[in-house]
Amino acid sequence: MPNNTVGYVHSIETFGALDGPGIRYILFLQGCPLKCLYCHNPDALETNSGTIKSVDEVLNDVVRYKSFLSGGGITLSGGEPLLQSDFCEELIDKAHVLGFHVAIDTSGGMPLSVCKNVIEKADLLLLDIKAIDAELCRKISGQDNSNALKILNLREQLKKPVWIRHVVVPGLTLDKNHLTALADYLMPFKCVERIDLLPFHKLGEYKWENMKRKYELWDTPTPTNEEMKEAIKIFLDRRLPAN
């Protein structure tokens, strides 16, 4: 693997509290193979664009915040970070030498043939399962869920932790049968430490409008608090760590 690999960076958050344990330095990488209907970062989809940074440049910046990252670490997000697997692998290796915990926040859209080393080395995987039904997954993201499920299976074999993320969308995934099937599928996985059911939101719509891109969910409402409680209950009833 090359030394000091460069990557395409979309943006950086230096004080993130939602993408892994503790306070985290979040590096959003540019490019994604999926075309999710509800993507809240459509400006991060295009490949080979963004700010070019080397691994060493990123880590030189990260160490400035090391005192704030105690109990936290670095999260590689996107876009889809596994689209730049060489960059991610080198960053994980060097970050580990510096004592940082590294999480990967992935849509699960990349095949293991190009990202296996990263999946094996990440301390934590935040894995977004768009839908447990392959056809529904394809409708939502343009791709089925086979890569995501293979990634989950590998983490189970490695006995390394995974946080599942699943966006609850009225008219798509806000469905009792769908949520029950997902919960039943996840029950045997000991690697799954946490399941975050995320309510569909409207915060990224302005980006679609500014980019003059077709957005199919304009009229889709945000789930109510009661609907989210009912969705979470399906998982809690199976003693799954959902919230």
List the helices and strands and how they pair.
Layout: E1 6-16, E2 24-29, E3 51-54, H1 55-62, E4 73-77, H2 85-97, E5 102-106, H3 112-121, E6 124-128, H4 134-141, H5 146-158, E7 162-168, H6 176-186, E8 192-199, H7 205-210, H8 225-236
Parallel strand pairs: 2-4, 4-5, 5-6, 6-7, 7-8
Antiparallel strand pairs: 1-2, 1-3
Helix pairs in contact: 1-2, 2-3, 3-5
Outline the structure in words:
This protein has helices at residues 55-62, 85-97, 112-121, 134-141, 146-158, 176-186, 205-210, 225-236, and strands spanning 6-16, 24-29, 51-54, 73-77, 102-106, 124-128, 162-168, 192-199. The longest helix is centred in the middle third of the chain and has 13 residues, at 85-97. Helices cover 33% and strands 21% of the residues. It is built from 8 helices and 8 strands, in the order βββαβαβαβααβαβαα. An 8-stranded mixed beta sheet has the order 3-1-2-4-5-6-7-8. It is α/β, with parallel strands linked by helices. It has one domain (6-236): Aldolase class I (TIM Barrel), CATH 3.20.20.
Core attributes:
243 residues, alpha/beta, TIM Barrel, globular
Return the CATH class.
Answer: Alpha Beta
Q: Structural class, from secondary structure content?
A: alpha/beta
**Gyration radius over CA:** 18 Å
pLDDT averaged over residues: 94
- CATH architecture, please? Alpha-Beta Barrel
Order of neighbouring strands in the sheet with most strands: 3-1-2-4-5-6-7-8
Number of helices: 8
Strand content: 15-25%
What percent of residues adopt helix (DSSP H or I)? 25-40%
Secondary-structure element order, N to C: EEEHEHEHEHHEHEHH
- Tell me, what's the shape? globular
Report the sheet with the most strands, covering strand number, pairing sense and barrel closure: 8 strands, mixed
- CATH H-tier superfamily: Aldolase class I
The parts where pLDDT drops under 50 for at least 5 residues are none
